[in-house]
Automatic annotation (TrEMBL):
The keyword Secreted does not apply. The keyword RNA-binding does not apply. This is HAD superfamily (Subfamily IA) hydrolase, TIGR02254. It comes from Allomuricauda ruestringensis (strain DSM 13258 / CIP 107369 / LMG 19739 / B1). InterPro entries: HAD-like_sf, HAD-SF_hydro_IA, HAD-SF_hydro_IA_YjjG/PynA, HAD_2, HAD_sf, PGP-like_dom2, Pyrimidine_5'-ntase_YjjG. Keywords: Hydrolase. GO terms for molecular function: 5'-nucleotidase activity. Pfam families: HAD_2 (PF13419).
């Protein structure tokens, strides 16, 4: 399947292991009610999801700051819904969202089963563009932190995937050569193309149901990794 022996597997976290969509929806269900913002949750999430993806794309490209990401994704959602929500309330929601997001702990299907299979056979690590404190709480809260030897995040690296340096840092920390490493992630640009450019082997977890791109093997369920390695 792969050209070289795989000794180390690097996972993305959100949308790859940790069920970001479900946990985010539960967080909004709580904080919108807590802050007395009256909005249909399903309608809010339908508008918010693509805006959040756009804001994260800008953030990866250093087009906006962390604070702008947190504010603008909410501001633009309420504007699109033609709702007047004050900056004060938006900032409270932005802070509450980060504070409560990691308290929800749903994982994507077969995450634990896959990690249980891989753990005795490979060295496992995380490379994430998320914020250090939040990602650490997600891993601990969902009970999977003990599977991973090294956790590399964009705050630690000072750059975000697909920047070459975050992969270089991860490989250096894990003390492994690129060709003996496998990156598993959901984002074609950040995870797959970024790692591939570094000489790492790659596997695309097709969470977003993307069309076949020919860059690497795509899987629809994490458990498929058992039959590939």
């Amino acid at each position: 399947m792969f050209d070289y022996e795989v000794t180390d597997i690097f996972f993305d976290l959100d949308h790859t292991l940790w069920d970001f969509e479900k946990n985010s929806a539960l967080t909004f269900a709580k904080i919108l009610v807590d802050n007395k913002v009256k909005v249909d949750l399903d309608g809010f999430l339908e508008v918010y999801a693509p805006i959040n993806m756009q804001m994260w794309a800008l953030y990866r490209e250093n087009g906006i700051s962390q604070s702008e990401l947190r504010y603008q994704r909410l501001k633009r959602t309420f504007d699109a819904l033609h709702m007047h929500v004050s900056d004060e309330v938006i900032n409270v929601l932005a802070n509450d969202y980060i504070a409560h997001l990691s308290s929800f702990t749903h994982l994507l299907p077969n995450t634990v089963e896959t990690l249980e299979y891989l753990f005795p056979r490979y060295k496992l690590h995380i490379i994430t563009n998320g914020f250090q404190e939040v990602q650490a709480r997600k891993l601990k809260g969902s009970g999977i932190n003990h599977y991973f030897q090294k956790i590399i995040d964009s705050e630690m690296a000072g750059v975000k995937k697909p920047n070459r340096y975050i992969f270089e840092l991860a490989l250096d920390m894990a003390q492994v050569e690129p060709q003996n490493s496998l990156m598993v992630g959901d984002n074609l640009e950040a995870d797959i193309l970024g790692a591939k450019a570094m000489g790492m082997q790659v596997l695309h977890y097709n969470f977003h149901k993307d069309s076949n791109h020919g860059e690497c093997t795509m899987i629809d369920d994490l458990i498929e990794i058992k039959n590939i390695l």
